[in-house]
Write a structure and sequence with these properties.
24% strand; Membrane-bound Lytic Murein Transglycosylase D, Chain A; 2 domains; Glucose Permease (Domain IIA); alpha+beta; globular; 12 strands
């Protein structure tokens, strides 16, 4: 059998080597994310189908969930050792911890002089996630369902037809953890945290009527319907359980 010239072998192997290198690069890009202006831990977790608590744990983020533009976050536990975050978050968290300790010290009457308390309290373990079994879900808007959960290429919620400008209401009480248009494919988006398990999301708003940090009640007006896919007026509505999209019709009355 005649031997192949070296340059022929190289010509055959080069595309395979390049393909492997490219695929490796793509895999790595999917394992990390650089925080942008306007991002929150909740919006990043939502956009990557992750549980925000796990995302915080992988990146040593405290319970205040504080992140800063420029921070590089690992998007999996496996990637965590290979991703180095900026020191801004750690510095601020440490500063807050120090100031909090000083405030507690002054409150307890030692004048903030660093004196040791007579009976130090052991650190308590973090509590397990709390789930509210009494969540009363309500439809965020009235209208015909254009697309149901699981229909189409990647429909992770319900697309509900409604006249542009129609009021969008909170499907349950909770706290607004994200407002903005930084997530591709959702337009102006609102995310509400209901407990340690459930989030709900409202996309394609023409107008957002709440701000991050607002406490909202079930049925409270939070936005107005805008234009979605195909320039059609609609609301995109999702419910996430531990970061995973679930069928809203299994929860709504």
């Amino acid at each position: 059998m005649p031997k192949r010239p070296f340059h022929c072998i190289a010509f055959i192997l080069l595309p395979a080597i390049l393909l492997a290198a490219c695929s490796g690069a793509l895999r790595w890009e999917e394992q990390s994310y650089t925080v942008q202006e306007g991002d929150t831990l909740y919006s990043i977790a939502f956009d990557h189908d992750l549980d925000y608590r796990e995302l915080a744990e992988w990146n040593d983020i405290g319970q205040n969930y504080l992140i800063f533009p420029g921070d590089e976050l690992a998007l999996s536990e496996r990637a965590a050792p290979h991703v180095s975050r900026t020191q801004s978050s750690s510095a601020v968290s440490a500063s807050r911890d120090t100031s909090g300790s000083q405030a507690r010290s002054e409150r307890d009457g030692d004048g903030g002089n660093g004196a040791e308390p007579e009976s130090p309290q052991p650190s308590t373990p973090s509590e397990p996630p709390q789930r509210r079994d009494d969540i009363n879900w309500a439809w965020p808007v009235e209208g015909d369902i254009i697309n149901r959960f699981g229909e189409g290429s990647r429909n992770t919620g319900l697309q509900i037809a409604a006249e542009e400008g129609t009021a969008v209401n909170a499907a349950a009480s909770g706290r607004v953890v994200y407002t903005g248009s930084g997530l591709i494919g959702y337009g102006k988006l609102i995310i509400i945290k209901h407990d340690d398990i459930f989030l709900s999301a409202y996309g394609h708003n023409r107008e957002i009527l709440v701000e991050e940090g607002d406490e909202v009640d079930e049925g409270q007006r939070i936005g107005r319907v805008g234009l979605g896919r195909g320039n059609r007026s609609m609301l995109h509505f999702e419910i996430r359980s531990e970061g995973e999209a679930v069928d809203p019709e299994g929860y709504l009355p």
